[in-house]
Fold each of these.
Amino acid sequence: FRTPGSEATGRQRLRQHAAALSIRRPWGVMVSGPGLVDEGTGKILVCPNLHWCERADLPAAFHEVFRAPVRLIQESRALALAEVGTRVSAGDFLLVDFGDGVGGSIVVGQRPYEGNVPATGEIGHTPIAGNGRQCGCGNRGCLETLIAEPWLVRSLAEATGDNEGTFAHVCRAALGPELPQFLVEALAAAPGCIAGILNVCGLKRVVLSGIIRDLGPRAADHLIAAIRRAAMWSRFDTVEVELVQRRRARGLTIAGIQRVIMPTDWAAT
C-alpha cells in the first residue's frame, strides 16, 4: 500500500494489511525506505518527502506486528539488488530510480556500494544551476524538484495554469506530437548528474527505473540519448542505458536472505 502521510495512519494500515497476510511466524521482515537510511541502526535520518519517517521507529512498528527480526534497507539499494539477482552476469552499473524522489545505487562486483556514511546514491539532491525550487531536504535547486513525479505535476500546472492536473496528465502531454518544454527542461537536468557518476566511477552501464517508463518512449529515448552524449566513455564505446521495471520485492527477498537467513555469509562476502 502507498505510504501514508503520518505515522499513526501508517501503523494502522500496517496492522490491517498484516492481518490480511495471515503469516503467523515469519522468519524476518525486510523494509525498504527512501532518503538517508542508516541500515545498521534501522533509522531513516532524512526523508525529504515523508518527514514523519525521520521520527518513527520503523523496526519497532513492524516488530510489534510480526514479532520477527526487522531489517531496514535503502530503497534504491533494494532495487539494485533485484537487478543483480535478475542479471547475474551484467557487471557493474548505476541504477537510477525516478518516483516521488530520485535515488540511485552504484553496483560494483555484484554488490551495491556502501560508503562511509549512509548517504550513498542521493543523486536526486544534486543542485542544478538555475533551479530555485525549495526541496524537502532543506536545500534549493535539487534535481528531484525538476524531474520527480510531484514536481513534474507542478511544472505542468505552471506551464498550463491548470492546478487540477495529475501525473496522468503529464504522461498524456509527453505522448503528444512533441515533448512539452517543461518536460524537455526537466529531462535535461538529469544526464549531467548521471554522467558525472559514470565518469568518476568508470561505469558504462545505466539502469533506469520508475516513472521514466510511464512518460513514454519519446521521453525515454530523449533522456537515454542525452546520457550517452554526456558520458565520457561514449567517445570510445557504447554507454549502455536500459529501462527496467521496479523489482522491489525481489530485491527485498535477496536482502532478507543475506541479512536475516544467512547474515554471517552476507557479512563475509
Note: The chain has eleven helices and nine strands.
Amino acid sequence: MTESLFVEAVRSAGARVFRVGGCVRDAFRGAAAHDMDYVLTGMKETRFCALFPRAEKIGKAFPVYHVYIDGRRTEVSFARKEVKTGAGYRGFDVTFDPAVTIEEDLYRRDTTMNAMALELPEERLVDPYGGRADIAAGIIRAVSAHFTEDPVRALRAARQAAAFGFSVAPDTILSMTACREELCREPGERILEELTRALSAPRPSIFFRVLCRANLLAAVFPEMYDLIGKSQPVFFHPEGDAFAHTMALVDAVAEESDDVVTRFAALVHDLGKGTTPAEMLPHHYGHEKVGLDVLAAWNRRMTLPHTWMKAASFVIREHMR
C-alpha cells in the first residue's frame, strides 16, 4: 500500500492523518528519516481495524499498529493525552478517543523538535510549540512541564545533543535536573539503550558533558563522574584531568570507528583512575587493575552486553602496554 492510498482511506472515513516525530524533525534538519510514524485523529479503533484488517496491533496501554506503507513497516497510532498517575514511564493514564486533537498529542512529547506534525496529503506543518525555529537555532527545548514525567527524557535530551550537535536550553537543563530522583529508579535496560545510542553519536562526549551540567552524571554514570578532578601528569596529559582525557579519547575513537563496542572500550579504559587516592595524584599506579573492579561494579548495577565487557576488560587490562 502506498502512503497516498493509506491517506485517502483515512480521509474518506472522515479522519485526519499526520506524519509525526523523527521523520518530521529530520526533514527540517535536512537528514534522511530512519522511520515513518503516523498519528490519526477523529477515528475510532474499530473503524481503523475495518479499513486495515492486516494491521498488526503492538500497543498494550494504547493502540499502536504496524502497517506496511510504501514497502516499509510503519507505526500508526491514535492521538492521545496522558496524565501522570505513578512512577516511571509506565505510570500514566492514557486517553485516546477520537476527540483528542493533534495539538494535544504533540503537547505530551518531549522536545519541541519532536513535537511537529505534517498533515497529509497537503503536508501542512503543525508546529504549535516552535520546533522548526529551535531546529534552525540548534536548540533542544522541552515542550512543557510534562518533560519530567518520564525521567529517561533527560538522557534522551543529552543524547540528542550529541547526535545533532545542538545545545540544550537552560530551562530544559533545569527540567533534566528535576528528573534525578526518579531516574535513579529506572530499569537499567532503558539507561543502557540511551547509552548505546549516545555512543553511536558523532561526539559521544557531549552526552556526558550535558548530563554533568544537569547534575545527573553522578547519579546515572558515577564511574564517569568519579574521573572529574583526578589530575594527571601534565607532560602526558595536557588536556586536563582524567574526565577530560576520557572525553577527548572517546571522541577521537568515534572519528575512527563507528563500532559501539570499540567506543565503549575507549570510554572505560581509565575507569580505575576514578578511585585513585588524593595523596597519590597526579599518578595512578595500578589503575589498570582497579579499573576491572570498577567495570565489574558497573556491570552489576546495569547489565552490560557480553561483547562490551569482553572488549572493555581487555583494553582496561592492557592499555598501559
Note: The chain is about 45% helix and 15% strand.
Amino acid sequence: MTIMREDLVDRLKQSVVNVVFTKADGSERTMNCTLKLENIPEDQHPKTTIKSESDQIRVFDTDIDAWRSFNFGSVKTIDGESVHD
C-alpha cells in the first residue's frame, strides 16, 4: 500500500501516529507524533499555521513533548504499515 504525504498529514491531524523513518545520519527512529491539538499541551500549540510545502513534515512528538520534523521520503512505516510498497 502506498501512502501519500497528504494521507499521513490527515492521519496526524486526527490522532497520534507511530512513524518509523531514517534520520539524516542514517539511523532509524521511531516516533509517536501528532498534529491533533487535543494531544498537544496548550502552551505548545503552534502560534501560526504550519505550512509545509516541502518533503519535510513538522510534528509534535508525544513521547518527549517537543516539536520535531522528518522528511516524508525517509518514512518506512506508519502505524506498522509499509509506506512504499
Note: Residues 5 and 18 are 15 Å apart (CA to CA).
